[in-house]
Task: structure prediction
Amino acid sequence: MLDIEWTTEEPAAKAGQLLVVPLRDGHDPEAIAQRFGAAVRDAVERSPFKAKPGDAFSFTRELGGALQHVMLVGTGALTDSSALRQLGHDAAREAQRVGAGQIVLDLHGAHGLPAEGADAPQAGSLLAQGLELGTYAYDRFLSEPNRRPLTLASVSVWGRSAAPADGSGRGQIVAAAIARARDLGNGPPGLVTPTFLAQTATEIADSLRKAGHDVELTILEREQCEERGMGCYLGVAQGSDQPPKFIHLAYRPKAAAKGGDAPARVCLVGKGVTFDSGGYSLKPAEGMLDMKLDMCGAAAVIGAFEGAVRLEVGYELHAIVAAAENLVSGKAYKLGDVLTASNGKTVEINNTDAEGRLTLADAMVYASKLEPELMIDFATLTGACIIALGPKIAGVMTRDEALYSDWSAAAERSGEPMWRLPLPEDLKEQLKSKVADMRNTGERWGGALTAGLFLSEFNEGVRWMHLDIAGPAMVSKAYGVTTPGASGVPVATILELLTHPLS
Ligand code: BES
Ligand code: MN
Ligand code: ZN
Result:
């Protein structure tokens, strides 16, 4: 974690330091001349640098006999939430690139930065989140010489007010929760098995308890899942030698969000298929290549749980993951099999590659039995959702208008793009079966919607929302504050939602 300080005094210039100066379109070149000399101004003027978002101009200058790194970086007005986070991210990235141990971020002349009021800590939080995310790398499997050296240790933010400092800690907790989700998503499938997810949950629960939080962890083994009749989940898991682990983290806050009454109960359910081969409806090799990503829903709810507890949210929070692998073997479930879920509903399997909804079915029944005020599931559920919305936008399905509006406002604040898709009742027709209560897939078109409709059969009377994160969970080409690999989406939005009043 970075040591981030906010100061209204100009920090002393030091060798090996990176000075970051955000500039806006239409900035005054004379200001550059005054500060860095006419030669720098001329070089900037001749370069493609226009101070547009994404533009950067880097140079070094001699300072008291040593070299200071300087980056001029284009930003929009810093009132936009993603601009501040991006600035922090870009500054940290540049520090890593030049090997600077310290950043001085000059927000003294920056426009649009809230200096006081409720927006100031939010600005501080976004900046800190960006700074931390800029240091993120998954280098666990790189041998020592190929690892990125972690030189960046401290950041001094020089502003006109130190009020945003109040949000720094929060931004760092959010970034750590995102990093947790990314680490799980980036882990190879031979490492991140259902057992590994359960171990991670154990470590998280232990460390949160040590910090004085009321956290409980329940892990159901195969036999206990059998006793509960989780036939859909176990059907998927049975093809693998890796034992299934049904993971349930629970947190009880000291103070309720609304005060007085018992805290509202919120269940977060995540798809935790640690590798999806497709089963006997086997995926082609290219389609299987990324399928370690299929536990990113689980990674998001586990990461968000950890973050929410550290932020001491006022909800009784549950993170639930029915973790399994979807493989082929002599024990694997077959096309034509009929599975019985824990709510008694029977499902004919017409595609073993539609396994996520089966694991989620039993997880949602389990969550519903906790009688939460709110249940949200997160899943890399369908390729169809990527076809519909592209690789960066998550699909949101719910019939609950108030929940949708709270969620989309949270997504807006966190800078994670989402778009609503419908749950058209008449498409349920496609899920009819002659031999069971339903089958697990419909026709090709609208596959994200029929997946959502399938899930709706396993929610009994709870306010519910479904997130299909198949697109944004994994990033192939870096954008925004992501690196190639797992994005940690939508951890930031979950934490936004849980730290603001719900309607
Ligand atoms: N895990 C996949 C969905 C997926 C595909 C996520 C690509 C990320 C990238 C899911 O289990 C799956 O295989 N879904 C099928 C559903 C179909 C059989 C109805 C799909 O999308 O093809
Ligand atoms: Mn699948
Ligand atoms: Zn899957």
